[in-house]
Amino acid sequence: MKKLSIIFTMFALSYAVHQEPLFDKNEDIDHIVGGKKAKLGSFQFLAVLLRDGESFCGGSLVTSNCVLTAAHCVDYIKPKDYSSIKLILNTSTINPIDSKAIERGVKNIVHHKNYNSGTSVNDIALITLDSPVEDIKPIPLPRIGSTLSYAGMWGTVIGFGRTQKTLADDESSGNGSNTLMESSLQIITNSQCSAMYAESKDAKISASMLCAYAAGTDTCQGDSGGPLIVDGIQIGIVSWGYGCADPKYAGVYTRLTFFYSWIRSNLV
Ligand SMILES: *[C@@H]1O[C@H](CO)[C@@H](O)[C@H](O)[C@H]1NC(C)=O
Ligand SMILES: *[C@@H]1O[C@H](CO)[C@@H](O)[C@H](O)[C@H]1NC(C)=O
What we know:
The protein is α+β, with helices and mostly antiparallel strands.
């Protein structure tokens, strides 16, 4: 029971952190929801994870059989519950989903065995789909051996913004965005990021994490488990952060160049 409530708290936290509406530098777009609508059909590889019909995380198609996501999205899901999980790809809205959307079930889930929910290190997992998705181009991952830090580069993060209430939330608090949103962020160095989180003794930026930030604007990382993309390559997985709309803190991502061999050995 205790464990369950910890999991629910983590869930509520990850929603609070990652599922706020996206904001955009262009204030004229929309003051309330903010963010920029993603171009229709531009992120077909993005997967929405649904549990009993409600979205709880994002992911990305990395081979025709496998979706990459965050460990914190799936580490509590037991094989007997796989049937309650659905993945939706190729959609730009979730309620209702596009008519061209592709739905798959779960065959298997593996998360990094050294994932630590306290420190968020190794926040990476792979979901094997119940049947392959042949007609969508998977998102490429960093080249084997690449040690680029990406600091200073601009990336894109995509997600559906707030699509359901947090578990702690009031049911009547409104519907939020159903639409796929994208936002631009700049990757910062890990030491800049550590400085942002210096006051928090619980938050430690490890070498296997990467931080991205949009200065002077309220941004949010999109759904947990979703991709951070630079030049058409996924370099990070939305992992954690403080205060989604708080410009004091960068968003923290799983740094994929650290996990290339884990990914290779767990892909099917
Ligand atoms: C994905 O959706 C687009 C419409 O947004 C559609 O044109 C395309 O055929 C779909 N792709 C697949 C593989 O179903
Ligand atoms: C919220 O969603 C419900 C059910 O889908 C719908 O009936 C209602 O009109 C929506 N409210 C707003 C403000 O969009």
